[in-house]
Amino acid sequence: MRDRRHTQFRIGGEDVKTVVSTPSVVETTTSNPLRFLPEELIVKILLSLPVRSLLRFKRVCKTWKTLISDTQFANNRFLISTAYPQLVAAQNQEIKSYPIESLLQNSSTTVTPVSFNTGHQDYIIILGSCNGFLCLHNVHQHSVRL
Predict the structure, then answer these.
(1) Any idea where the F-box domain is (predicted)?
(2) Is 84 helix (H, G, I), strand (E, B) or coil?
């Protein structure tokens, strides 16, 4: 027997809604070691994790697999990720990502960028971006990558 629960809360100024189909209370109390954590807290934690971790955590239990696989969860994760914009710059063979919030809050703070090595000795330029995806142009190979 499964219960369908709706949860709503705010993260980064955005309303986040989740619908989770979970085992019934009797089933949960006997088999779920996380029964003492409120579902809302678990959802907030999962929403803040990198995608690679979420893919691993789908194997923790059926409840987490259902939650992480839910389209509403994916939509909420996208909304949260866009709430923390990044400034992206290409320099030599690296693409660097700077958190804009840190740059705007205190101009005297030194911000260490997150670097992504392109693995090429070629000249890479950023053509544009959309929904967090970058369109990169390799000048020497005359190729474009997303």
Answers:
(1) 31-77
(2) coil
97 and 78 in a common domain: no
Token pair 């914009």 in the structure block, residue? 85
| Residue that is written with structure tokens 């958190």 in the block | 99
**Sheet containing 133-138: order of strands:** 124-130, 133-138, 143-145
74 and 130 assigned to the same domain: no
Read off the DSSP letter of residue 122. S
Q: Are residues 34 and 56 in the same domain?
A: yes
Dump pLDDT digits (tens) for 19-76. Answer: 555 554 444 444 555 566 778 888 888 887 877 888 888 888 888 899 888 888 888 8
**What count of other Cβ atoms lies within 10 Å of the Cβ of residue 4?**
8
Residues 73 and 26 in one domain: yes
Report the domain count for the chain: 2
